[in-house]
Write a structure and sequence with these properties.
alpha+beta; Arc Repressor Mutant, subunit A; two-stranded antiparallel ribbon; 5 strands; 35% helix
Length: 124
């Protein structure tokens, strides 16, 4: 007596083979493409496709804190972003000062060293 074959669509579906050139070469390479119609989307993939508004980025949070008249300390920025102190300092030096060309002033006050954006060209 012969065994019965499972008749699910995923097992009976034949993969499509497409020809795609290899980088830096004229030879085509075979690539197997399988449809994923039978697979449900995971919550992680669905969440990663949601678009963030420009005001939700950590860079915009830092800019908002530094644009306040009272400015912000490294500790305040680190608490707001969840970053460590050296990451905040690197962001201020590398991105805000060098890449965006902003002028950041620092003053020693009662609550510690306070940073403020005082001027400079803004590319935002």
């Amino acid at each position: 007596m012969p065994k019965s074959q499972p008749k699910t669509a995923a097992l009976n579906e034949k993969p499509q083979i497409t020809q795609k050139p290899i980088k830096g070469s004229d030879k085509p390479s075979a690539k197997i493409v399988r449809s994923n119609k039978s697979r449900p989307k995971t919550a992680k993939k669905a969440a990663s496709k949601s678009k963030k508004s420009p005001g939700d980025s950590k860079q915009s949070i830092i800019l908002a804190l530094l644009r306040r008249p009272e400015g912000a300390t490294i500790d305040e920025i680190a608490k707001a972003t969840g970053w460590q102190r050296h990451s905040v300092q690197g962001m201020m030096s590398g991105v805000l000062r060098k890449r965006l060309g902003l002028t950041i002033a620092s003053d020693k006050e009662e609550r510690g060293r306070v940073y403020r954006i005082t001027g400079g060209a803004s590319r935002l």
